[in-house]
Design goal:
Blueprint (H helix, E strand, L loop, with lengths): L2 H13 L1 H18 L7 H14 L8 E2 L2 E2 L6 H5 L7 H22 L10 H9 L2 H10 L3 H7 L4 H6 L3 H14 L5 H18 L9 H15 L3 H11 L18 H6 L7 H18 L3 H11 L6
Antiparallel strand pairs: 1-2
Helix pairs in contact: 1-16, 2-6, 3-5, 5-6, 5-7, 7-8, 8-10, 12-13, 12-15, 15-16
Length: about 300
């Protein structure tokens, strides 16, 4: 492969994610408006109901919005409770706006162009008003303890980056909040919460099956032998039982064409398959240092995501 053909191949690969990103964003974005107006900011509505139930002395995990129950961990409750001084409609609008700002922080801190604000997981998270996007932005901005209260799955990230101070501060904050959160209720109801969430989320983006979870865990463990930091970010997406489409936003700080394409495809199970393929390619590239293989596969997994 000559120099000119290599340049053309690399250019093609950089641009290859564009149709997947646009198509995925349009598909996932349309779901916020397709069924009824109440779908916009739906996760923020669910959080609002759960927090209000908790503040009223009730069980937050029995609170539901249009048949969808609150299912977050109890540490989110005191972190988000101050926002409920707002009426529900303003609470929802505020979280959509905060997620949009957080998306800007994620993209810019990751050195990407504005184009990646259209990355489907970001679009989905913003339109749903899900605190996960803000949580990820807080982690990259240096406020990991608060970010992890909003997105506990992101604990893989701080371990992968060996941010031990952040780990210690998060444990301290989580311990302090034990005084106010209904942890006992959560633990007693956890099997019901998980089973109900699996049904109501329809498996989310990852599928919610034991096989999908096993493949996700094996993939990130294999990737950790090559790059522990990347394994931490991707574990946030696939090494948990069920995840929504917004979870793919965790790939933003390590984005490359292969991850961008796979995480933009709105097919259940695509995130798990993408991470498995990515880990396999990274392992093969490390094991077999053939120049032709590097020229062909290198641009797919290299830090060349910007079109």
């Amino acid at each position: 492969m000559g120099l000119t053909s290599r340049v053309r191949w690399a250019t093609l690969i950089r641009r290859l994610p564009i149709p997947f990103v646009i198509g995925g964003a349009l598909f996932l974005g349309s779901r916020a408006f397709m069924y009824h107006a109440s779908s916009l900011g739906i996760d923020a509505h669910i959080y609002y109901g759960g927090i209000q139930a908790w503040l009223s002395g009730g069980d937050p995990w029995n609170a539901a919005y249009h048949g969808l129950h609150f299912a977050a961990v109890p540490w989110t409750l005191p972190i988000l409770a101050p926002f409920t001084v707002l009426p529900e409609s303003l609470f929802v609008a505020a979280w959509i706006l905060l997620d949009a700002i957080a998306a800007v922080v994620l993209v810019r801190r990751s050195g990407l162009s504005w184009t990646w604000l259209a990355f489907p997981p970001l679009v989905k998270g913003i339109l749903d008003g899900n605190p996960a996007i803000v949580g990820l932005a807080l982690i990259v901005a240096g406020a990991a303890p608060i970010g992890l209260m909003l997105r506990p799955q992101a604990g893989f990230i701080v371990f992968g980056e060996r941010r031990w101070r952040a780990v210690a501060l998060t444990i301290a904050l989580a311990t302090v909040l034990l005084a106010v959160i209904p942890l006992g209720t959560f633990l007693r109801e956890l099997p019901t919460i998980m089973a109900r969430y699996a049904v109501e989320s329809r498996g989310g983006a990852t599928g919610g099956t034991p096989l999908a979870l096993a493949v996700g865990i094996v993939s990130v463990l294999a990737l950790a032998t090559v790059d522990l930091r990347e394994a931490g970010w991707l574990a946030t997406i696939v090494a948990v039982p069920i995840n929504g489409w917004y979870a793919g936003a965790a790939a933003i700080p390590i984005l490359n064409p292969l991850l961008a394409i796979g995480l933009s495809i709105p097919i259940v199970g695509a995130p798990v398959a993408t991470v498995a393929i990515y880990a396999a390619v990274r392992l093969v590239l490390r094991r077999f240092r053939w120049p032709w293989l590097e020229r062909v596969a290198g641009p797919l997994v290299g830090r060349t995501a910007d079109p």
